[in-house]
Each structure stands twice: as C-alpha cells, then as structure tokens.
Design a protein that fits this description.
Layout lengths: L5 H5 L23 E3 L23 H16 L6 H16 L10 H12 L4 H17 L8 E3 L1 H11 L20 H15 L7 H17 L2 H10 L5 E7 L2 E6 L6 H11 L8 E5 L11 H4 L1 H4 L4 E7 L2 E6 L13 E6 L6 H11 L4 E4 L7 E7 L11 E9 L16 E2 L5 H8 L3 H12 L5
Parallel strand pairs: 1-10, 4-5, 5-8, 8-9, 9-12
Antiparallel strand pairs: 2-11, 3-4, 6-7, 6-11, 10-11
Helix pairs in contact: 2-4, 2-5, 3-4, 3-5, 7-8
C-alpha cells in the first residue's frame, strides 16, 4: 500500500463546517460509526493557561465546556488551532443567544468567560440546556458534519446496544408466542405450528410473510445452543448467517461488526467445513453498517495471515498501521474461489475489510461502490458534568480510514473490482473463475436482498 498522507492527496480538510450553525442532536446515524468503546480518554484540563482575560473561578458549566474544548483540541482527527476552535464556540454562543458574542481571548479560557457572560442571567435549567446545546453544536459542526456530538447516557447506551446488535423493541420468543427462556424443543414445536398457520397465507399476504420470516429468524436463533444462550443472557442477536447457496458454494453474510461477530464467524466457518464438495465461498458485506473497528485486527488474520499490515488510520497528519492479531483459519483453506459482495450501504468497518481484501487479492470484490463513511468515532467520558441527574459523554471523530490506494475512504468509498451494473459482469467474473456454479450463485445472492 502506498503510505501517503491524506493531506498530500486531497489537501487538508477544513475543521469547520459552514458558518451557519445548525442545531443537531446526535441520536440518529450513530449506528453507522466505527467505534472504539474500550479505549476511553480521561485527560484532565490544564490548570495553567496564560491569558490576559480576567477569569473567575470556573462554575460547573464553564468546567464542562472547558473540558469539551480541551478534549476536542487533543483528540480530534485533524490539526485544529485555538483560533479555529474558539471561533466555532463563539458562533455557537451567537446562534443560541441570538446576539453577537465576544471572545476575550481565542483559547479555552476565553470560551469559558464568554459562556459565563451568555448564561449569567439564566435560570439553572436554562444554563444546563444552553451549555449542553453549545457543546453539541460545536462538535456536530466539525468536519465531517454530524459525526461528532454530545451523548446523554440514554444515547450512549443506545449506541452500545446498536453496536452489540441488541434491539430492545424485539422479542424473539414473542414471535413464536412463547414465554422468555422457553426450551429449544418448545421453540421448534412452536415454529412448526406457526409455519403451518402462515405458510399458505404468506404467499399472498405481506404481513403473513413478515410474521413467518420473523418466526423463522426466531427459530434459527433460539434452537442453536450458543446463540440462544447469548440472546437469553444479553439480548444480542447473531450477526453472521450462512447457508449453502449451491452444492459447492458456501454463503456467509456479515450483518455488522459486533463484539461477538468474530467468534460467530469462526463458529459458522467451522460448522460447514466438513460439508463434502465445497470449494467456493461468497462473503456478503452488503448493508453491513460497520461497528466495533477493534475486531478487524482479529477478523482479517484468517484471510491474510498473522502479523500482516491490515489497514491504516490517519490522525493529525500521521498514518498508523495496524497488523493482524490472528492467523489462518483451517476451515477457510478449502475455498479456492472467493467472491465478496458490497453495495452503497456497505460502510465503516466493512469498508476497511473490503479494501484490505482487495489489496491482498483475497477474493473478487463484486457489487457497487461502498458508502464512503470513513471516520472512526471515539466515545470519550467527561469528568465535569452540568447535571447531577444526567451524565454526558463526547462522541468525537478520532481518525480517518485509508483505502488500499492511499486515498481516504471518507466521501469516496471503495470501488469493486467488478461492477454489478456492467452488462458483462458475469463474463468479467468468469475471467477470474471459470466456474459456472460460482457465477450462478453470485447472481442468485445479489438478486436476493441481504435482509432475507
């Protein structure tokens, strides 16, 4: 891989969005992030800031904003100056106050003094709301727009649940009219009953088809010992599904990268390893929204070997390489022909996996250009809080991911080796693998929506 800095490729990114600041609550879209959950920064505010501004002792609101300021300055992916960051805070205060705002100095202290002036006549609830909105406005308006923000505890938990593939609105047992923790045998019996009731109706009734699909999914999860135990304990559903799409072709779909995904993948690969005649594999990354990026150092090892340079992240002008932490997986060795499916909803960690597999020629990448979501967000706790009943954290873009050609994934995506929109895509695939069963299986897989 060409080890070129993003700066030298496309020019330095502006850390500010447009001058018009938008109120934006970072509650939507967080499922599509790269996320570092375990590594949390806990830097303390510097106590020695020299300025000509007269600064009173910080109250809770100034301390909160000061910490957001310093942690943004230290951890944001791009180089950002005090002048740039303090100006963004000034614009935020002006937007919220609907009046011009003055910075006594272009640094953290100046921002805190400005905040104190803006909220001095407000009630306590108004001060809390103003301060939280200001922090969120500033973070949201960092480039890329809308990727960073302030998260409440509820939003933090929702983010962690999404990455872990936990959906509290769903009850798999209820899909089979069973109480929670029913036995696997009871699940199987209930599914057969449900299938008998719905099979004929599902052919013409979309609602009946959905109910049958939900029941089938519940049966698959709750009759497997490992997935049932995980679901009963945590509520996490499987992120890896597989089946034989043809007698000689295995199909494995990765829905997202959750903490359990690597173990699920190994288990699935091992479970079909002894099937006779298998020699081809389709890995489906379509609609994969990414997730826990830490997994990739483990996930890529079975495909490219141990201690290999898998990918690089860009942070403040420097590229950091990451090596694989696992090695070859014996149950994958039998597959001599591999196709990887991607589309415009393949994003985040899935895009990094795609570009690495493309770089190492693990398989043939077939589909459409991926989404181009190339940021890594870090969940950062805050030591200073403005509300005893609510604890906030920062979600901040900490790094940018890089393609196999040295270009950023952000805004560009990863191009497939074969575009499925080409009229002769099947001919192109046959040029790689002159094997009709795999070409036919690839067409069948692409024609089937990834959610089914």
């Amino acid at each position: 891989m060409a080890r070129r800095m993003w700066k030298s490729q496309s020019g330095r990114i502006s850390v500010l969005a447009t001058i018009g600041i938008f109120l934006f609550v970072v509650a939507s879209g967080v499922a599509a992030t790269y996320l570092y959950i375990p590594r949390l920064y806990t830097q303390k505010l510097s106590a020695n800031i020299t300025t000509n501004a007269q600064v009173p002792q910080d109250d809770a609101y100034q301390a909160f904003i000061g910490e957001v300021y310093e942690k943004t300055l230290n951890n944001y992916f791009d180089k950002i100056t005090d002048e740039q960051l303090s100006e963004l805070f000034r614009l935020g205060v002006a937007k919220l106050a609907k009046a011009d705002a003055v910075l006594p100095s272009k640094d953290a202290v100046g921002v805190k003094v400005m905040l104190g002036v803006a909220i001095k006549d407000k009630t306590a609830p108004e001060k809390k709301d103003f301060t939280a909105q200001l922090a969120n406005i500033v973070l949201v308006n960092l480039k890329p727009f809308g990727r960073s923000g302030i998260l409440s505890e509820k939003q933090q938990q929702a983010l962690v649940d999404t990455v872990s593939n936990i959906d509290h609105s769903k009850d798999l047992y209820a899909a089979l009219d069973l109480p929670k923790a029913a036995s696997a045998q009871a699940v199987d019996d209930a599914f057969k009953k449900k299938e008998t009731e719905l099979a004929q109706k599902a052919k013409t009734d979309p609602e009946a088809k959905k109910q049958l699909d939900d029941a089938t999914h519940a049966r698959n999860v709750l009759t497997d010992t490992k997935t049932k135990q995980r679901y009963d304990k945590t509520g996490a559903e499987p992120t890896v599904v597989s089946h034989l799409i043809a007698p000689t072709v295995a199909y494995i779909r990765l829905q997202k990268f959750s903490p359990q995904t690597f173990d699920e993948f190994v288990s699935v690969a091992n479970s079909i390893a002894d099937k006779p005649g298998l020699d081809s594999l389709i890995i489906d990354l379509r609609d994969n929204i990414g997730g826990a990026v830490d997994l990739l150092q483990y996930f890529l090892g079975p495909f490219i070997g141990p201690g290999q340079y898998g990918y690089e992240f860009w942070h403040k002008g420097d590229l950091t390489p990451y090596k694989t932490k696992t090695g070859w997986l014996a149950s994958l060795a039998k597959y001599k022909k591999v196709v990887v499916l991607v589309n415009g909803k393949t994003q985040s960690s899935a895009e990094v996996m795609t570009t690495t597999m493309k770089k190492y020629r693990v398989g043939v990448i077939v589909g459409t250009t991926t989404k181009g979501w190339g940021t890594i967000e870090q969940l950062i706790p805050l030591d200073h809080q403005i509300d005893g009943e609510q604890k906030y954290s920062m979600l901040l873009v900490q790094s940018i991911t890089v393609r196999d050609d040295g270009q950023p994934i952000e805004g560009k995506g990863v191009d497939p080796m074969i575009k499925i929109t080409d009229k002769d895509w099947e001919k192109q695939l046959r040029a790689y693998f002159d094997y009709p069963p795999l070409v036919q299986a690839t067409k069948k897989a692409w024609d089937t929506p990834p959610s089914q």
